[in-house]
Amino acid sequence: MIGKQMEMLAGIDAIIFDMDGTLIDSMWVWAAVDRDFYEKYHLAEPPEEFYLKLEGMSYTESAQLFLDYFPTLTLSLEEIKDEWTRMAFQKYTTEVSLKQGIRDFLEEQKQRGVKLGIATSNGIELVEATLKALDIGKYFDSIHTSCEVEQGKPAPDIYLLVAGELDVNPERCLVFEDVPMGILAGKNAGMRTCAVDDEFSRAQDEKKRSMADYYIHNYDELRVNQ
Questions:
Q1: Distance, CA of 2 to CA of 8 (rounded, Å)
Q2: For 14, which of 1, 2, 115, 118 could close a Cys bridge (C-beta 3.0–4.6 Å)?
Q3: Helix, strand or coil for residue 136?
Q4: Annotated domain spans of the chain
Q5: What are the CA-CA distances from residue 207 to residues 49, 179, 195, 201 (Å)?
Q6: Cα-flanking dihedrals φ and ψ of residue 36, to 5°?
Q7: 204: which residues sit within 8 A by CB, 6+ positions away?
């Protein structure tokens, strides 16, 4: 491990990961869920600006945005979240795959004694089921969702919660994120950040590179033993 990789992990006691698009290739699931949801409830697909507002929001905040945007939607906040979970569950547990190289990277960091955490905007039911299906839950010392804190990303709340549980100062934490609002959340928490390439945020690639301290295409770039 040389150059960028040595610099990235120097002085780091904890690594905190976003989940969707960062640990796993799962962003495609939400495009499918959105289509099914709009069709089922006879809703017109909103413009691109709507999806930009969603970026970084917690599961609860996202459901509230849907209620605010679609006045004809008669579901409650919890009913929307439950519906999304139901629509996404099978795909998350049977079709979603790990990001290239992530299992080996997690294993290496555990062997080095680095604490590992997850700070995700997803719902806890999907998080727990996905980690179990992919057999990676055992690597993480702290797992939390943005629904547990006052504000979702880009606020630093979720990253500070995980760092606190890991008992590691924010400046000794490294965050991996796939979207600008997530990167900003890590920066707002006073942490070092690494942007991860993902197909569904590739249009924002230049912005991601400019915001983050580091950038990787996959986790094989960070392996100690190649």
A1: 10
A2: 115
A3: coil
A4: 4-25+98-222, 28-94
A5: 17, 9, 10, 10
A6: -65, -40
A7: 179, 180
pLDDT tens sequence for the chain (226 residues): 455 667 899 999 999 999 999 999 999 999 999 999 999 999 999 999 999 899 999 999 999 999 999 999 999 999 999 999 999 999 999 999 999 999 999 999 999 999 999 999 999 999 999 999 999 999 999 999 999 999 999 999 999 999 999 999 999 999 999 999 999 999 999 999 999 999 999 999 999 999 999 999 999 998 765 5
Homologous superfamily of the 4-25+98-222 domain (CATH): HAD superfamily/HAD-like (3.40.50.1000)
Instruction: State the residue for tokens 């809703």.
Output: 43
Q: What's the predicted TM-score (pTM) here? A: 0.93
Q: 215 has which bridge partners?
A: 195
**Distance separating alpha carbons of residues 220 and 162, to the nearest angstrom:** 25
Structure tokens at 38: 């709009």
Whole-angstrom distance, CA of residue 139 vs CA of residue 74: 40
